[in-house]
Design a protein that fits this description.
The chain is mainly α and 128 residues long. The chain has two domains: 1-40; 51-128. 91% of the residues lie in helices and 0% in strands. It has six helices and no strands. Helix 1 runs antiparallel to helix 2 and helix 4 (63-88) runs antiparallel to helix 5. The chain is elongated.
């Protein structure tokens, strides 16, 4: 957690300075901070993925559902980061459009999951 805090404090300082003198570079500093944070938490992310993988294996659930979950999570994080960067740059209209596109992408990525749930419901209804 100290790494994350240090990166964010440095980003706040850099962003504040850049926003005063070179506002066009301030958004780039945020993107760099996001990349650094992703690398800083990569070990923890691997631990979480291994946990999910083990749980799915124990439950007998197909790994494709984990892929759907991870795609939706990745999309949500990317959309949030991009929308925040748009708002920081003063473009809230673009932020709204990015959020809408993210919702569409997440809904489309969930189609196989929805099909699986409908299949299970149909299977259980047929057994009654």
């Amino acid at each position: 957690m100290l790494k994350v805090t240090g990166i964010v404090v440095c980003e706040i300082l850099v962003y504040t300075l850049l926003k005063q003198y070179k506002p066009e570079y301030a958004v780039l500093s945020e993107a760099a901070c996001g990349a650094l944070l992703l690398f800083a938490v990569s070990d923890e992310l691997e631990t979480v993925l291994a946990l999910f993988d083990g749980l799915l294996l124990e439950a007998g659930i197909a790994k494709e559902y984990l892929a759907i979950l991870l795609k939706a999570l990745g999309t949500a994080l990317a959309v949030q980061f991009t929308a925040d960067a748009c708002r920081d740059a003063g473009n809230s209209a673009a932020a709204s459009k990015v959020e809408f596109a993210g919702k569409v992408i997440m809904t489309a990525s969930a189609v196989p999951l929805i099909k699986g749930v409908v299949g299970l419901i149909t299977e259980f209804a047929g057994k009654l």
